[in-house]
Amino acid sequence: MKAATRLFACVLVGMFAASALGQIEPGVPGSYPSVAVKETPHNLNNYPAVTGTIPGNQVCLPCHTPHNAYPDPDGQIHQVLWNHEETDVSFTMYTTLSGQTGSGPDGPSKMCLSCHDGVTAVDNYGNPWTGELVGGTTVMTGPRAIGRDANLTDDHPIGIQYPADRPAEYRAETSFDPGINSGPGVRLVTIDGVKRVECTSCHDPHNNGLGRFLRVPIQESYICLQCHIK
Ligand code: HEC
Ligand code: HEC
Ligand code: HEC
Ligand code: HEC
Predict the structure, then answer these.
(1) In this prediction, what percent of the chain has a pLDDT beyond 90?
(2) Which of 34, 37, 42, 44 to mutate to test the pocket of ligand 2 (most atoms within 8 A of CB)?
(3) 43, 104, 122, 172: which has the fewest Cβ within 10 Å?
(4) CA distance 172 to 96
C-alpha cells in the first residue's frame, strides 16, 4: 500500500514536472496534452467579466445551439449551428510580398473575429428558445483582441490562397504532420473552392492542450515549419 502510494506520488510529481517544464516534443503527437473546452478561456464562465451569465452553464451555447441558431444576416457563416452575433467590422487586411491581400474574414475566421475583434460583445449570443440575441455587452480588450482597431495588417495573413504552386517555399498539404489527439495538425480551409489559410488553420477553438488553442506545438517554431520551408 505504502509502495503504491509512493509510486503514485512519483507519477504525479513526474506529470507536474513534465507539464511545468512544458516538455512537448514537436513531432510526437503522443506527447501533446489535451484540454477540453470547459477548462479553457472558451468557457465564457471562465472569463471573469461574464461569470455566471450562461443559462444552465452550457459551455457550447455562446458558439453553438442545437436549434433556432441565431440567423446569419449576411449568409457567410451559416455553418456549425453558429449562435453568436457576427462581426460587421470592415478590416484592413495584410498584403504579402507576393501581392496577395487577404479577403475579409469569411467562414471560421469570421466566427473567431465575432469575439476577437474587440468590438462585438463576447456574451451576445442567441437565446436557444427565442432565437433572439441575449444582449451581452462585454467586449474583449488587450492583445487577445486580434482584430482590434479593425486592423489585421499586424497579424499572420488570413483569407489567403495557399501557394501550392510554390513547392520550394510551401509544403504540400498532404505532408502536414498530425496535431493534438493525433488528429489533423495545421490545415487548409476550402472556401468558394479555394484552399486558404484561416484562423482555424493554426487554431482549434475546442482544445487548449498546447496553449493558445494551437493545433501543433509552437516549440522550435514547429507550427510555422508545417507550411513554410525555411
Ligand atoms: C468559443 C466558441 C466555441 C465554443 C465555446 C465551442 N465551439 Fe464548436 N466550433 C467553434 C468554431 C469557430 C467552429 C468552426 C471550426 C472550424 O470550422 O474548424 C466550431 C465547430 C464545431 C463543430 C464542427 C467541426 C468540428 O470541429 O467538429 C462541432 C461538432 C462543434 N464545434 C461542437 C462543439 C461543442 C459540442 C461545444 C461545447 C462542448 C463547442 N463546440 C464549443 C467555436 C466554438
Ligand atoms: C464567444 C466568443 C469567442 C469566440 C467565438 C472565439 N473566442 Fe477565442 N477567446 C474568447 C475569450 C473570452 C478569450 C479569453 C480572452 C482573454 O483572456 O483576454 C479567448 C481566448 C482565445 C485565445 C487565447 C487562449 C489562451 O491560451 O490564452 C486564443 C488563441 C483564441 N481565443 C483563439 C480563437 C480562435 C482561433 C477562434 C475561432 C476559431 C476563437 N478564439 C473564437 C472568446 C471567443
Ligand atoms: C499561421 C498560423 C496562425 C493563424 C492563421 C492565426 N493564428 Fe493566432 N496564433 C498563432 C500562434 C502560433 C499563436 C501563439 C503565439 C505565441 O504563443 O507566441 C497565436 C496566438 C493567438 C492568440 C493569443 C494572443 C495572445 O497575445 O495571447 C489569439 C487570441 C489568436 N491567436 C487568435 C487568432 C485569430 C482570431 C486568428 C484569425 C483572425 C488567428 N489567430 C490566426 C498562429 C496563428
Ligand atoms: C497553414 C500554413 C501556414 C502556417 C502554419 C504558417 N504560415 Fe506563414 N504564411 C502562409 C501563407 C500561405 C502565407 C502567404 C503566402 C503568400 O501569399 O505569399 C504566409 C505568410 C507569412 C508571412 C508573410 C510573408 C509575406 O510575403 O509578406 C510571414 C512572415 C509568415 N507567414 C510567417 C509565419 C510564421 C512565423 C509562422 C509560425 C508562427 C507561420 N507563418 C505559420 C502559411 C502558413
Answers:
(1) 70
(2) 42
(3) 172
(4) 20
